[in-house]
């Protein structure tokens, strides 16, 4: 069914438009708000019109998972394994931060092309870098556990900016005496509330520790 745009022109409905609208809706209002009826409303069409482009809601969920994964920078053959893993991790974290509905990735049992490319390129990079098959599997699991775990922590934190973090830390510290929790008080006042403190650097610091450990493990098998 054609959709009227702001210019009065009609744009045909397509699978791509349906999935992009679904992703935007899920990011804005949560996966629980994503129904075929609600999606139709977002696009200005009846829900039945959507079934010409997607068979059912699970196909929509598979599709938005693919869209999120397509934003990961995948390792290529022209970079070494460490740089490839670093770029992928940083881009994945950024993509997950842009899409609060990213948890849909964890529940899909029908991997699409983006998921398969993601898996294959990571394994290939690690294997080219000298990792055994077993070590490549362990490295992949470790890296993704860190990426997704950090993303889950970030999305649940009650602050979005350094200023909000300082304000939150100050309000928490007002609730206890420093002598009762001296180590917590020290970290709050001497680190977190410093103007130059940047919580986002915690991700890159942890990532480099993991890459260092993987390099040592890889070298030990040479």
Word description of this protein:
This protein has 222 residues and is mostly helical. It has 2 domains: 3-54, Arc Repressor Mutant, subunit A, CATH 1.10.10.60; 69-220, Tetracycline Repressor, domain 2 (Orthogonal Bundle). The protein is built from 10 helices and 2 strands; from the N terminus they run E-E-H-H-H-H-H-H-H-H-H-H. It has helices at 15-29, 36-43, 47-50, 57-69, 81-98, 113-128, 133-156, 162-173, 182-192, 201-220; strands at 3-4, 10-11. A two-stranded antiparallel sheet has the order 1-2. Helix 5 (81-98) packs antiparallel against helix 10 (201-220) and helix 8 runs antiparallel to helix 9 (182-192). The radius of gyration is 22 Å and the shape is flat. The N and C termini lie far apart (60 Å). The model is unreliable at 1-8 (pLDDT under 50).
C-alpha Rg, in Å? 22 Å
The count of helical stretches stands at: 10
**pLDDT averaged residue by residue:** 91
Query: Would you report the number of β strands?
Result: 2
Helices and strands, with pairings:
Layout: E1 3-4, E2 10-11, H1 15-29, H2 36-43, H3 47-50, H4 57-69, H5 81-98, H6 113-128, H7 133-156, H8 162-173, H9 182-192, H10 201-220
Helix pairs in contact: 1-4, 4-6, 5-6, 5-7, 5-10, 6-7, 7-10, 8-9
């Amino acid at each position: 069914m054609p959709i009227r745009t702001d210019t009065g022109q009609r744009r045909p409905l397509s699978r791509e438009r349906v999935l992009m609208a679904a992703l935007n809706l899920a990011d804005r209002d949560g996966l629980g708000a994503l129904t075929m009826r609600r999606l139709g409303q977002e696009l200005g069409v009846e829900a039945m019109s959507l079934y010409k482009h997607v068979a059912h809601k699970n196909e929509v969920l598979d599709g938005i998972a693919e869209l999120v994964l397509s934003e990961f920078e995948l390792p290529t053959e022209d970079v070494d394994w460490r740089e490839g893993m670093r770029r992928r991790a940083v881009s994945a974290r950024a993509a997950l931060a842009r899409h609060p509905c990213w948890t849909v990735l964890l529940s899909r049992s029908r991997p699409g092309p983006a998921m398969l490319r993601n898996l294959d390129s990571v394994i290939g990079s690690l294997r080219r870098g000298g990792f055994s098959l077993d070590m490549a599997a362990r490295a992949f699991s470790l890296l993704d556990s860190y990426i997704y775990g950090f993303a889950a922590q970030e999305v649940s934190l009650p602050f979005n900016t350094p200023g909000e973090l300082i304000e939150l830390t100050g309000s928490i510290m007002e609730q206890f005496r420093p002598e009762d929790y001296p180590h917590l008080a020290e970290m709050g006042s001497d680190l977190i509330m410093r103007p130059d403190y940047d919580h986002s650097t915690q991700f890159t610091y942890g990532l480099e520790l993991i890459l260092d450990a993987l390099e040592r493990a890889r070298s030990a098998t040479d």
